[in-house]
Amino acid sequence: MCFKLRLKSCLLAAGALPLVWGAGEARADQVFLKNGDRISGTVIDHKNPDGLFLATGYGADLRIPWAEIDALSPAYPVPKASDPLQEAALLPITAEEAAQIEPASASASAGLTAPPEEGEKTKWTGAANLSAALKDGNSNSRELAADARIKARDAQNRYLFGGKYHYAEDEDSVSSDETTLFAEYDRFLTEKWFLGGRLRFEMDDVAQLDLRSRAGLFSGYQFYERDDLALQVKGGLEYIRESYANADTNDHIALSFATDYEQAFMDDAFRLFHRHSLSVPADEIEAFLLNSESGVKVPVGTFLTGTAEIDYDYENRPAPGAEKDDTVYLLKLGYEW
Fold it and tell me: What letters, b where the CB count within 10 A reaches 16 and e where it falls short, cover 190-229?
């Protein structure tokens, strides 16, 4: 038991460190026009008196006259406007104007971020979420859930790491005590194809799982990686080692398959996401594992998001006395950068 507690403390501390590194990045810039419209993008020049220059990610950059802008988020210093402008609110940037622009520090939207061009600096994005509930009266219950995902992306490499924790107690009986930590690396061979590897550690006291260690190698295909849509699939081989409190330790070589999808709708008014991984041991096909996360995210502030999420895990051959499936419903408040 002491070993488990020390191991959990070390793993959780290691998973929290990337939060410090990624916290300096901001979400996508927001431009609020006087006619009520809102445009999302990256500010590339806020010092020109003729207007704000914005990269939209839709294939064309824009120049928006200052006279048409009501507010910016985050705020930028606004220069004194030139002579009154009679142009429309959205003007394409000419080649001559684009050549004279010195890009400002770009900010990335959390979760969905297009990869940087060759030679650009690494983009960091991420999210940290928290959910808690306490009931005291006719019945007593407590619940706490926390998770974090950090991503670093350059032209050819992608790093992803994070973890999650869920604890629930009802009438002094623990119904959930789960910890998961993970790390992944992808190396892009072409714009779409990549090779990679991952590590994953899982502990579940209620299911009598002391530690499940998973290490895998895979190849994948990135169908989309834009600011408004990300979709990838990957498959490969995985080594799984399971240590149970009330059963023997198991070792498997498994075939694995995973999908990661996220999409923004209605100018990022909300985002849908779904992630799942399936591992099938080659020597015991019936002992397969399924992990999935699905939900919707809604921005509630400049950096805050609300999330409704369903986590579903299925273990076809669990430890004696443990259930095969585990479903968790969560309402979370998160910080994204």
Answer: eeeebebebebbbbbbbbbbbbbebebebebebeebebbb
CATH number of the 2-25+116-336 domain: 2.40.160.40
Residues 253/282, Cβ–Cβ less than 8 Å: yes
- φ and ψ at residue 7, rounded to 5 degrees: -65, -40
Q: What is the pLDDT along the chain (337 residues), one digit of tens a residue?
A: 444 444 454 444 444 444 333 433 345 677 888 887 888 888 887 777 778 888 876 656 788 888 888 777 766 655 544 444 434 344 455 555 555 544 443 333 444 666 766 666 888 999 999 998 877 766 678 899 999 999 999 989 999 999 999 999 987 789 889 999 999 999 999 999 999 999 999 999 988 899 999 999 999 999 999 889 999 999 999 999 999 888 788 899 999 999 999 999 998 899 999 999 999 999 989 989 999 999 999 999 888 999 999 999 999 988 888 889 989 999 999 999 8
Using CA of residue 235, residue 289, residue 263, residue 268, what is the dihedral sign?
Answer: negative
| Residues 15, 163 contacting (CB under 8 angstroms) | yes
Distances (CA, A) of 213 to 111, 130, 153, 216, 245: 26, 25, 26, 10, 15
Q: How far apart are CA 321 and CA 337, in angstroms?
A: 42
User: Could you count the other beta carbons within 10 Å of the beta carbon of residue 274?
Assistant: 15
CATH 1.25.40 fits 29-100, yes or no: no
The residues spanned by each domain of the chain are 2-25+116-336, 29-100
